[in-house]
Amino acid sequence: MNPAALSAGMRAPSRCLLVVDEDDLLRWSLREKFRAAGWDVVDASAGFAALEAAEGRHVDLALVAVTLPDLDGAALGSKLAATHPRGRVVLMSSAEPPEALPSSLEGPPVIEKPFDLDAMVAWASRDIAETG
């Protein structure tokens, strides 16, 4: 069979985003923007629910709030990094000033909320495409 014909009918594997934040509107907004860009998106409002949602999936990128009702965002990020070593974890914080962030936040990058959703999708799509 012609390899071109095979690949023509096959869809490129989509990337998977995990969004973890208590803010329903932020989760919905990120879900809609990333899905429109071709990503599979799962979301959760708390840490343990996020671990359950990520189970059995290949998570390419996890956007995790620093403050969650049941787990510290950095601790969740560490757990996700251990179970999804090829994925990226980015913490989201609305702490102002940045010095207000917990000193335990070493490792994953931290972005300040609010952020430009389109710029986030563009960055993530480029970054994941480059790092595979």
| Spatial separation of the terminal alpha carbons | 28 Å
Structural class: alpha/beta
CATH class: Alpha Beta
CATH topology: Rossmann fold
Count of helical stretches: 5
Main sheet: strand order: 2-1-3-4-5
Describe the protein's topology.
Elements: H1 3-9, E1 16-20, H2 24-36, E2 40-44, H3 47-54, E3 61-65, H4 73-83, E4 88-93, E5 110-112, H5 117-131
Parallel strand pairs: 1-2, 1-3, 3-4, 4-5
Helix pairs in contact: 3-4
Describe this protein with a few key phrases.
single chain, 132 residues, alpha/beta, Rossmann fold, 5 helices, 41% helix, disordered N terminus
How would you characterize this protein structure?
There is one protein chain. With 132 residues, this protein is of the alpha/beta class. The chain has one domain: Rossmann fold, CATH 3.40.50.2300. The protein contains 5 helices and 5 strands. The protein has a 5-stranded parallel β-sheet with strand order 2-1-3-4-5, with helices on both faces. Strand 3 (61-65), helix 4 and strand 4 (88-93) form a beta-alpha-beta unit. Helix 3 (47-54) runs parallel beside helix 4. The longest helix has 15 residues, at 117-131. It is globular. The two termini are 28 Å apart. Mean pLDDT is 84; it is low at 1-11.
How is this structure best summarized?
With 132 residues, the chain is α/β, with parallel strands linked by helices.
